[in-house]
């Protein structure tokens, strides 16, 4: 476990940097679009996708399910040094959070 922690820390830092860079470029793109003044339906749809209106819901569900997974791990017996069980349990709870978000946000298809 001690050997994997520096690796996970580096991965977390890289993910944070990638999110910051992505947010910066989304901001610059929106600013350029607004400065050029070309606002039609397609541009508005792109702007809405860039703003990510349901991001707080997504991260709230993911953090909630991750926290519940950690609480469940407190009550599940396992050997911490040799068992991959905690990773699997946490992955299942995080996946459940993603699926809950997907089913909440998914728009039903209109029947023709």
From TrEMBL:
The keyword Ribosomal protein does not apply. It comes from Chitinophaga rupis. Keywords: Membrane, Transmembrane, Transmembrane helix. Pfam families: DUF6249. The chain crosses the membrane at residues 6-27, 59-78, 84-104. It comes from the Bacteria. This is DUF6249 domain-containing protein. Residues 8-105 form the DUF6249 domain.
């Amino acid at each position: 476990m001690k050997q994997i922690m520096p690796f996970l820390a580096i991965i977390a830092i890289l993910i944070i940097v990638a999110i910051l860079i992505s947010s910066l470029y989304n901001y610059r793109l929106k600013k350029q679009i607004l400065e050029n003044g070309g606002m039609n339906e397609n541009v508005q749809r792109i702007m809405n996708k860039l703003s990510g209106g349901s991001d707080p819901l997504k991260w709230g569900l993911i953090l909630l399910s991750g926290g519940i997974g950690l609480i469940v791990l407190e009550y599940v017996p396992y050997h911490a040094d040799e068992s991959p069980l905690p990773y699997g349990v946490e992955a299942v709870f995080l996946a459940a959070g993603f699926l809950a978000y997907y089913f909440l946000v998914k728009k039903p298809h209109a029947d023709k």
